[in-house]
Prior knowledge:
Blueprint: H1 14-28, H2 34-41, H3 45-51, H4 60-69, H5 74-87, H6 96-117, H7 135-144, E1 158-161, H8 168-180, E2 187-191, H9 202-212, H10 224-237, E3 241-245, E4 264-269, E5 280-283, H11 289-300, H12 302-307, H13 309-319, H14 323-334, H15 341-349, H16 358-371, E6 373-374, E7 377-378, H17 379-387, H18 392-402, E8 414-417, H19 418-425, H20 429-441, E9 446-447, E10 453-456, H21 458-466, H22 479-489
Parallel strand pairs: 1-4, 1-5, 2-3, 3-4
Antiparallel strand pairs: 6-7, 8-10, 9-10
Helix pairs in contact: 1-5, 2-3, 2-4, 4-5, 9-10, 11-13, 11-14, 13-15, 16-21, 18-20, 18-21, 19-20, 20-22
Amino acid sequence: MGRLERPLAPDAGPVTAFARELRRLRTAAGSPGYRDMATRAMFSASVLSDAAAGYRLPTLQVALAFAEACGGDRATWERRWHEAARADGDDGSARPAVKAVQQHQENELRAADVRAVLPPPSQLPMEAHPLVGRRELLQRARALTAPSYGGQRPAAPLVISGQVGVGKTAFALRLAHELAVNLPDGQLYANLDPAADGRKDAAGIAGGFLEALGIPTDRIPNDPGQRIGLYRSLLNRRRLLVVLDGVQHERQIRELLIAAPESRIIITSRSRLLGLDGIGRIRLPALDRDESMELLAQLLGGDRVGSEPRACLRLADACGDLPLALNLAGRRIAARPEWMLQDSVSELLGDGPGGHDGRAGQRASGRFLARLQIGDDALGNRLDSAYRLLTPWARLMLRQFAGSDNPPSVDNVVYESADALAMLVERSAQPVEDLLERLLDAGLLDHSDLPGQYGLTPMARAYALTQPDPTEEDPVPAPAAAAARSQAHVRQPG
C-alpha cells in the first residue's frame, strides 16, 4: 500500500498554493506513488510528501526533483518556486557567511534521503589477505587523501603506480577499505584492465557508476559530456569513494576526476600518468626481504617458514621480492603441505639446489616464470599484456637490457644506466632514455636510487629473454620515430 497523502495546510498563503500546484502536477501524471517517485527524484518519499503538504516551502532542489519525477518542465517549476519564495518573503538566497553551511546541510539531507530509498553501492572487491609491509607508504597515502588547510582545500585524486606484479591493487584496496568507513554514500569500483570485461571509456565508466548510484536508466543522459557532468555533480554532493583500477592512459579517466569536497578517488596504473595535473602520486617498490619473508609466512605458515628459512630466502631472491610472484609461488607450495619446503622450492625453481649458469640458468628462469600460475592468474600473462603494446624498438631495448652482462645486485635486480644501454644499441643517449622511461611506464622497469639508472627484476628479465628477437619480427623503426609514437602505444594498465 502506498503512502497516504498528507492533509494540505489550512492557510491560503503562497506556500500552500505552491503545494497545491505540485499536487495537481502529480494528479496529471497519473498519481504515481511517492515511493515510485522517490526512485526517480533521489529524495525519500517522506520529503516529497512534505513538499506537497504546504506547511513550509520545500528547497528548490526538492521542488525540481518532485516536478521532474512527475514529468514537469524544470525551467517552469524553477520560475514558480522563485515566485512563491518572493511572495512568502524569502527570495531563496543565502548570505555568504552561511551559504556553505546550508549547502553542506542540504547535501547531507539529500544523501540521507537517497540512502533511505536505495542501498549505497558497495563495489569494493574483498582483500584476499592482510597487506604486508607498506606501513610508511600507507601513512603517506592517508595524508595525501586527507583534506588540507583545515578542510578548506579538498583532497586531490591519488595515483598509485608501479611495475607489473608489485601489488598496486592490493595497496589501493587496503587504503580504500580504510577510507570507506567515513564515506557512507558508497564505494564505486571499475577494473579497467584490458583483460577485464566492461566499459573502458570515461562516458561508459560514468554510465556504469550512475546506474550503481540508483539513477534510472532513462534519466542517464545519452550525450557523453552530460553523462560525465551528472556523475561529477553527484560526486561533488555526496561522500563517495571511487577506485579506478588498472588505468591504461590519462584520457581514459581525465574527465572523471574532480577534487570533490567529501569524496575520494584512488587510481592504480602501471604508468605514472604524468599527463594528469593536480593529483597526488605514490610509486610502489618491490618488498624488502623481511617483508617477503612475512608474506611467505602468511601463505605457508610461520612454523614452516621458520624451520626452513634458507629455502624461503632462495624463493624470495628468485621472485625479486615481487608480491605477485611470491603470492603465486607460495600458494602453489601451500597446496602440497606433505612436501619438504626445500624440495618444493627446488622443484618450483626447476634448477636444483646447486642452480645453473648461463643459458641453462635462463631456461630455468623461464620455466619458473611459466609455473607462476594459479587458476586464471599468471604473472606471465600480465607481463605479456604489457609487452604486446610495445613498439619493436622498445622490445629490442628491453631485450638488450635483459641480456646485459651486468651481474644481478644483492636483491637480484639487474641495474644499467641509459648511457651504457645507448652504447649497446649504438644510439645517442637521449632517445634511449626516453624509451627507458616509457618501458618504466609500461611496468617492465623501475628506477634505481641513482640518477639515470634503471632496474630490471628477475621476473621481467626472464620474460624478456623468452621472447623472439624483435629484429626478426618487424623492421625496427628509428629511435626518434619510436619515441614519437610510443606515447600512443605504451600506456598500460596497473
